[in-house]
Amino acid sequence: MPPLSDEHKVTTRRFFLSVLAAGASTAIHPGDVSAEDLANPALRRLIEKLNYLTPAEQFGTVERGNPLPYKLPLAQLKEAGLTPDSWKLEVVSDDDYPATMGKQFTHADDTAFSYAKLMELAKKHSTSFIKTMTCNNMEAPLGTGVWEGVPLREVLWLTEPKANLRRVFYHGYHNLDPKQMFQSSLPIGRVLEDPPGMPPVTLVYKLNGKPISGLRGGPVRLVVPEAYGFKSIKWLTRITLTNLHNANDTYHRGNNDIDSWLKTIARFGSINGEVPKGTPIPITGLAQVGISGLKKVQVWITPASPAQPREETRFAYGDWQDATILPAPTDWDANGTAGPIDMESVYGFDKQSGKPSSWPIPYTIAHWATLLPPVAPGRYTIRCRTIDNNNTAQPLPRPFKKSGSSSISRVTVVVGES
Q: Which residue from 66, 96, 142, 179 puts its CA 20 to 30 A from 197's CA?
């Protein structure tokens, strides 16, 4: 996975100008640094490095399979159904806990749901939304993109489900080796109905306006907007409708919480590790916006010595200072990082202006910046955290590692003697 500071490395002057234009907008909280501080040359250089969408090839990658499915020779890719012209999705009833269905889509009777049929559905039911992809066992997001596809429920309804349906199991291509199978599941209610303000569970075929690559899980993968990455299965090949009440997610191994929604956390982006004496300390970063939303990002600077107690993880006593949550970008395709995207059609965006209806967008990111005042020469530790819309400070309300990382990030800065 690339360093977080490199994740959004394509520069854009327009993003910086939008920050200054925001001035007293609601995206900047009272007590934050001023527009004048944001114009500080050192901080300005860091802000100009920010780009919101992550190019598909720059996403961090978490993958499994031996060999990796997308690295198969072309003939084997076609045989495995991992090209658009060969992809077919089975949608079947569970043999052990059968759901009552009017029909099933199977390879055996040549009714498996094809890519061409998916494109036909897309003419009427296509949807797109911004989501940040995150592994629940990693400290930082893997990337943020615009995902486009067809809601899974549109395909499920074609099977004419009638009764005895409590859960949806799904898995991707696993090289015909059962030991390599990676699967996940959702309650049927989440597939058929979206909670307020939440995009649908989606069969995705595009990322940032371009067909999704094999590296990113194409030709079709599942994306669950509010969940960590293990719910968004790559190389999707089979869906099973079941009357079984419990989950069967592969990720239950390793003591993972398989029902955890995305958490709200702050991470550092760019920061100068060495700062001359008498100069402010510029910092940028990103906040992952989880289920509880994002109200504030805060930073805290302390001398590196003596160190804070090793057992301390919450740091509720710190002298935390508000940072600035930067406004939404004005250019979503800066320097060609994304393909052609009609932002007016993206979930949560105004259909007239092409701007987000609210900011920050849940289950995505927001950038933040601050300019700390000069401090005496020495070695310092700087920490960052979020305050969510329930006024709860990171790492709460869910501080447990196996339900998604929420630890408080820290960096070291040295202020020179001269």
A: 142
Per domain, the residue ranges of the chain are: 57-252, 262-415
Q: What is the DSSP letter of 259?
A: T
Residue 250 and residue 402: Cα distance in Å, rounded?
Answer: 14
**DSSP 3-state of 138:** coil
Task: Give the side-chain half-sphere CA count within 13 A for 177.
Answer: 9
For the domain spanning 262-415, the CATH number is: 2.60.40.650
Q: Fold for 57-252, please state it.
A: Sulfite Oxidase; Chain A, domain 2 (3.90.420)
User: Which residues in the chain show pLDDT less than 70?
Assistant: 1-34, 334-339
Q: Could you read off the pLDDT of 301-343 as tens digits, one per residue?
A: 999 999 888 889 999 999 999 999 999 988 887 555 666 788 8
CB 286 within 8 A of CB 368: yes
pTM score of the predicted model: 0.90
The strand pairing partners of 127, in sequence order, are: 149
Strand order across the 324-325 sheet: 265-271, 281-288, 365-372, 324-325
The pLDDT of residue 1 is: 37
Please, are residues 302 and 308 in contact by the beta-carbon 8 Å criterion? yes
CA–CA distance, 210 with 338 (Å, rounded to integer): 8
Rounded distance between C-alpha atoms, residue 172 and residue 270, angstroms: 36
pLDDT in tens, 19-59: 444 333 323 333 355 677 777 899 988 998 888 999 999 99
Residues 416, 418: Cα–Cα separation, whole Å? 6
Instruction: Determine contact, residues 162/177, Cβ cutoff 8 Å.
Output: no
Residue 355: HSE in the Cβ half-sphere, 13 Å Cα cutoff: 8
